[in-house]
Request: fold
Amino acid sequence: MASLSLLVVFPFLMAYAASRDLLTMLIPNTVSIALAVAFAAFAIASGFGLSEIANHLGAGAVTLLVTFSLFAFGLIGGGDAKLAAATALWIGFDHLPEYLLLASVSGGALTLGLLAMRALPLPGPVARLPFALHLHDAKTGVPYGIALALAALLVLPETVIWTRSLGI
Reply:
């Protein structure tokens, strides 16, 4: 049962967050809440000890503190801040620096790609898609949820909870 959360629920929610951010520039609160609830269920089903739970809760809390500070300064969106914190619950402190670094690098690449795309006119068929028009608009932000999801999906298989849960 615990591996179902790890192998299905977590990747699905990350992919959903990324696609919603791409299409609407919003990450619903329900995604972050579902990630937190799924982590709690996973931790209980996996028999996490208090120190392991504290490690993961601490990673989520520290990430929430930092990302909400960035949100307060208008540097990232609120959905991005909540998604990063909910993801940090799963990652824990052990691989949190790698997650944040990978999210930053992929977010920077995404930003540069969007800036390059915005400098060019949209091709005819794409120009009819509302989300493409919105994304192409220079006033629109960056769907950073894509970078957060990518980083999470790349880092999670390196974590202790992944190897322990799958018996690797």
